[in-house]
Amino acid sequence: SAVISQKPSRDICQRGTSLTIQCQVDSQVTMMFWYRQQPGQSLTLIATANQGSEATYESGFVIDKFPISRPNLTFSTLTVSNMSPEDSSIYLCSVEWDRGPWDEQFFGPGTRLTVL
Amino acid sequence: SQQGEEDPQALSIQEGENATMNCSYKTSINNLQWYRQNSGRGLVHLILIRSNEREKHSGRLRVTLDTSKKSSSLLITASRAADTASYFCATVYSGGSNYKLTFGKGTLLTVNP
């Protein structure tokens, strides 16, 4: 397993602004992912953060709204741009070592975002 | 949608009782994983069961997998108040990405002291 931290742990933001969330892992990992959990809902994969290249986005998520960076094997950021109240969610990063189809994913503590 | 379904959506039991949660999914899988989430915080990985396995144990947890019925169950024995949390199943579908997790809607378990 790994120790995964996220910053900030929570934030309250105004409509139209942007927030960048950081995910730091204490060891090098192969895969890093970003998920969204809307209030009372399950988790939905936003994108896979690829080191040194553009992230791979899932259907319904676009780079202009959720730009992602991954400069190395231990760090990634997710920006929520031009926020609206509908973006109020918990955002979680997860990591995996990609040892095969039976690999576990480990999650960070999440960032609780409220947009007013 | 490939999203799985858990049932029940909510479960309330007394401390010491067993809790059983079920998960159904729609297509062939490589593995199925169960996670716990306390009060909207990060997810804790509980157990992974591969598609060629039928049952797995970890402490007070027992997971079964029936690929013919496309379903899984999570049994927590001798529950404790600290087990109060939301429980999610997540699947990795075969034929797709090795890493993409598709989560079910979750079961909210309340264990009353």
Verbal overview:
- The complex is a heterodimer of chains A (116) and B (113).
- In chain A, the strands form two sheets. In chain A, strands 2, 4, 5, 6, 9, 10 and 11 form a seven-stranded mixed sheet that branches.
- By secondary structure, chain A is mainly beta.
- Chain A is built from no helices and eleven strands.
- In chain B, the strands form two sheets. In chain B, strands 2, 4, 5, 9, 10 and 11 form a six-stranded mixed sheet that branches. In chain B, strands 1-3-8-7-6 form a five-stranded antiparallel sheet, with no helix packed on it.
- The radius of gyration of chain B is 13 Å and the shape is globular.
- At the A-B interface, strand 4, strand 5, strand 9 and strand 10 of A face strand 4, strand 5, strand 9 and strand 10 of B.
Catalogue the unreliable spans of chain A.
Answer: none
Poorly predicted ranges of chain B: none
Which percent bin holds the helix content of chain B? under 10%
Averaged pLDDT of chain B: 90
Structural class of chain A: mainly beta
Name the biggest interface: A-B, 27 and 26 residues
Specify the overall morphology of chain B: globular
Task: Enumerate how many helices of chain A there are, as a single number.
Answer: 0
Proportion of residues in extended strands of chain A:
over 45%
User: Sheet bearing the most strands of chain A, described?
Assistant: 7 strands, mixed
What Rg of chain B is obtained from the alpha carbons, in whole angstroms? 13 Å
How is the main sheet of chain B built? 6 strands, mixed
Number of strands of chain B: 11
- Bin the strand percentage of chain B: over 45%
User: What is the string of helix and strand elements of chain B?
Assistant: EEEEEEEEEEE
Helix content of chain A: under 10%
What is the N-to-C order of secondary-structure elements of chain A (H for helix, E for strand)? EEEEEEEEEEE
Topology, number of strands of chain A: 11
